[in-house]
């Protein structure tokens, strides 16, 4: 199983970043530029990427005490996918978002890494605007 780890500095308070990330319906706004839409029903959400690709995600946990969101991706070209987004306060006006993605098969690493890197840029830009 492959793992990709990213840490993104965000110029906003941790509580504000968490408020956006904890809401599954906000994912298209947080990742605007990479995602163009999201639809949520219960713990499932469907996200639409800028290229029109739609994937189904399941929100596994929203942990307010630790500012941590866990989700998985169903179907598609991944045999298994589980990821977490964790907000950590650095200063009153700055935080980090730690994004960890575990997936199979390992050969999909370049695709997952490209999407995560684009997502990190979008996340930093869009959360700083809050």
TrEMBL record:
Tree of life domain: Bacteria
Annotated Pfam families: Polyketide_cyc2
Gene3D superfamilies named among the record's database cross-references: 3.30.530.20
InterPro entries: Polyketide_cyclase/dehydratase, START-like_dom_sf
SUPFAM superfamilies found in the cross-reference section: Bet v1-like
CDD domains: PYR_PYL_RCAR_like (cd07821)
Descriptive protein name: SRPBCC family protein
Annotated source species: Paraburkholderia sprentiae WSM5005
């Amino acid at each position: 199983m492959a793992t990709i780890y990213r840490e993104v500095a965000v110029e906003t308070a941790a509580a504000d970043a968490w408020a956006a990330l904890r809401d599954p319906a906000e994912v298209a706004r947080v990742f605007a530029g990479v995602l163009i839409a999201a639809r949520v029903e219960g713990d499932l959400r469907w996200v639409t990427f800028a290229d029109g690709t739609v994937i189904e995600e399941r929100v596994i946990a929203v942990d307010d005490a630790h500012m941590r969101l866990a989700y998985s991706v169903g179907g598609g070209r991944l045999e298994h996918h589980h990821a977490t987004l964790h907000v950590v306060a650095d200063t009153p006006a700055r935080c980090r978002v730690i994004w960890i993605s575990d997936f199979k098969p390992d050969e999909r690493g370049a695709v997952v890494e490209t999407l995560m890197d684009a997502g990190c840029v979008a996340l930093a830009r869009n959360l700083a605007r809050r």
